[in-house]
Amino acid sequence: MPFSVFGVLARLGLSALATYSGQSIFPLAYAQATGCLIMGFCLALKEPFSRYYPPLYTALTTGFCGSLTTFSGWQLDIFKSWLNVGNAPRSALSDVMDGLCKTVFTFSISLASLLFGMHIASEISPYFRPAPAPGKSFQRFISVLGVCTYAATLPAYFLLPRDYRHRATSALLFSFPGTLTRYLLSTLLNTALPAFPLGTYTANASGTALLGTFHVLQSTTSRVLSPASCTVLQGLGDGYCGCLTTVSTFAAEIATLKTAAHKYRYALGTWVTGQLILVLIVGSLVWSGAVGKDQTCSFD
């Protein structure tokens, strides 16, 4: 619970820091790279982490890294490049190049960060001496603290300034449900096909479909939504979909699949699925004129 919340906060914070006039790299790249770096570090130290306190490993990888990185946000970002959302003065070829840039760069930086994180862990592992496992009382305290941390997101939504709702606090409310859904899908389905992690694939595909739906609702031109509805949709997109989908686990699975054929099939199959889903949900409505390319939602 708490690591899902912290992962969303880190993603939103990094994206906000990286959004400025004249930026050279798209903002989401920083969150993807950071999450994959930490994921690689944890993967290489899985045995000592698990020996010390197994839930800590799950919290760092599934909770924090899985929530810090987002597959659905990446896919929608790419699709916005194809559509040229913002109507930048460029050609159709430039639209294609922009989408390909976000695709190739994210694949590259994610896998490179994952391997670099594993390298850092291998360098320090000879000096890594985990402390004795925590006692039962401390474990119960940590569990209660985790529940209280997530429970605090509800009063934070209402008590903090209204401007924070669409920026952060709405997303925090939906963070843990998204992470829990991904965890359950992975637990139930990933063992079904050893050469194709079906659970993560299902989580990434369904999260992309939901995010595309929320984006369409936020871009409708026939009926303007209320600020409260727009805030909830933004929270569902950033929080639930952002935590339901993950690039860090996706990259880790690509790196650990046994053969090159399995790696390419899983990587390209997941990416193509995400783009086809957005073509059906977002593209068909934009090209028919039912919704606009830009969001019409207002948070004021």
The percentage helix is: over 70%
- H/E element order: HHHHHHHHHHHHHH
Alpha carbon gap, first and last residue: 30 Å
Q: If you average the pLDDT, what whole number results? A: 93
Family: Belongs to the fluoride channel Fluc/FEX (TC 1.A.43) family.
Subcellular location: Cell membrane
Membrane topology: Multi-pass membrane protein
GO molecular function: fluoride transmembrane transporter activity
Quick recap:
The protein contains 14 helices and no strands. It is an all-alpha fold.
Detailed description of the structure:
The protein is built from 14 helices and no strands. The model has no long low-confidence stretch (mean pLDDT 93). The chain has one domain (2-288). It is globular. With 300 residues, the chain is mostly helical. It has helices spanning 2-17, 28-44, 46-52, 54-68, 71-83, 92-124, 136-151, 153-159, 163-173, 175-189, 198-218, 227-244, 248-256, 260-288. The relative contact order is 0.16. Helix 1 packs across helix 12 (227-244) and helix 3 packs across helix 4 (54-68). It is found in: Cell membrane.
